[in-house]
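To whoever is on call:

I kicked off a structure prediction for a single chain this morning and the downstream step that reads the tokens threw a length-mismatch warning. I double-checked the sequence; it's 706 residues and nothing unusual in it as far as I can see. Pasting both halves so you can look.
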Amino acid sequence: MANLRHILSNYFRLSVATVSFIVMGIILFAILVSNVTPNVVDVNVYERAPRDIQSPITIPLEEQTEARKRLAEENVKNEYTFNNDIAFEQADAMKILINTIISINKTEEKKKDDEPLLTREQKIDQLEDYIDTSEISDETFDTLFRASETELTNVRNLGPDVVNSVLEEPIMVEEVDGKKDEAVRLIRENGNLSYSLRNATEEITRTFIIANRTLDTEKTRQKRKEASEKVEEVFIREGEVLVKSGSVITPEIYERLKMVGLLDQEMKTYPYYGLFLFVLLVMAGLYYFMKEERKKEHFRKYVTIYALLFTLTLVVMKLISISTEIGLNSLMYLVPVAAGAMMIKMLFNEELAVVSSVIFALSAALIFNEQTTGNFNFIMSLYVLFNAISGIVFLGKTQQRSKILQAGFFVSFIAILTVASVLLLQNGKFTSWQIGLDLGCAALSGFISAVLTLGLLPVIESSFNILSVTKLIELSNPNHPILRKVLMEAPGTYHHSIMVANLSEAACESIGANGLLARVGSYYHDVGKTKRPHFFIENQMNMENPHDKIAPQLSKTIITAHPYDGADMLRADKIPKEIIDIAEQHHGTTLLKFFYHKATQLTEKEVAESDFRYPGPKAQTKEVAIIGISDAVEAAVRSLSKPTPVKIDQIIRKIINDRLEDGQFDECDLTLKELDTVAKTLTETLQGIFHSRIEYPEETKKVEKQ
């Protein structure tokens, strides 16, 4: 049944926490939804624009980009390659051709009368490897085949020289005909040939004049590709004025308005899906970040407080953003987001405060987007983040209320620097009045944050009866009425509590538990003893022990009542529940061994152990368990006449082992390794406390000699 109640309690706690996160998500969505609602304009082609219409997004213009790339490619001139070797190759080819003709003619001359001569076609066939014979007339071949060796030698000397001379200069394809005419002119000017042989030489030479500067297709393609890649992509930029107020909306402008989504009269759903995913990510991240806190009993109360602070901060930002819509843009710098961050740190922890600051900054980017053309105001996001983080950092670890006002001044200083940097980055194109107003609002934001924190923190702590670090520090004040009552009415208990506080704080910190909670809880754990102080041995100074005159059952009733008397006193004084739990649980269900054994000696009947046990409950947290150990250890070590390091270690480990075997740690998550660490820490701490009372062997020998 107990397990069932525990399971149902956990389920209910987590269900309430889940609902709280869902509610936070709904509130966040509701606050931001107006900031992501698409803006549309109702205009038609050739109408006049009712106002300056700006693009809400950045979008590429692919067609214009491609057109610019094509134009860039067309402007790139063809790349050509000049081949210096062609002049030599063509001149050499012409020499070979003439030499071959000379050789053919000699062979024909040496033939005998009865040997058949080669026909013209047969002779031409032997020249096909050196010249395109189809371009040469039969008359030219007949002239060359009839010419003497001397005449052909003159042709061989003249033609190749002309070819080489003409081809030394770059010749484009379209320039070839002109260069052939130039070759003919050079032959006529320099040659001493017969008319027919000169004509043949001119025709042959023309065939060897070719283009030596050719198109380099690969290089041209590469150049055009480079030119195309250098063309910047054409965009419609976010914030770009698409049409000025009063200007006619041309078809081109209308198309641009359509491209950026300003003509969609039907409500677009994409921004809402995006906002839903944003809220989902934020809430899921927060829920996961609080996974350790979810295991704690007070998680339901704490998540309620967090939801309140979270919502309050967002609502304040939203209200300020609405006020900026009337034209007072400087008011956005008044946002006191540092108040929310500082309160979250003081009520929870620094890590959660930092995470919350990031969430506030992201939300601010959307909430204050009315001053921007897009969906995000990154300047305001940075401003909020710097403000919140500066408040968290300045508070440090002390978290005293006196530092809150100082933190406010520090936040103001950071806010002024942030705004100043923004103004300077924008070239400072603002009036003196605008600059002064911006900086003034930034300065006020820190002061307002401090005032809100100082005002709201006590209200939240008292309303929800929560235990913050600040509250713990206040409760540790010796002038607290309850602690003064303990000091005045049970001074022995007061001293005992101080000792337990020292021990439990050191032990808790050694295993990563809350040392400050353990210290303050130890101060209050035995306040119930003030009802009957003289029934507890630490307060029995120069007086008889009243338990010697009463039955052990009555002694047991008196002793076991003090945790619950103390819890009632603390509840009446509205002390936080964590301190009350320590007072009520620090003895768990341990056995009052002294009175149990006394009862068994006074009767022959069997005495049930359960009659002499504390009613419980057992320790629910590490801090309570360690305070219970420290309470027993302090009393046990104090009773030793000559405490030595060995005796102290033995008694500590015996107390821990007895409680472990008795099941006193069954309902808290202390591990055996942590218990060993606690034992070592308590031993070291007590050795320091009782150092002056420990007699070392050398000192004992000196005393004996005296």
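Update from on-call: the warning came from a stale cache, not from the record. Cleared it. Sanity check on the structure: The CA atoms of residues 128 and 134 lie 9 Å apart.
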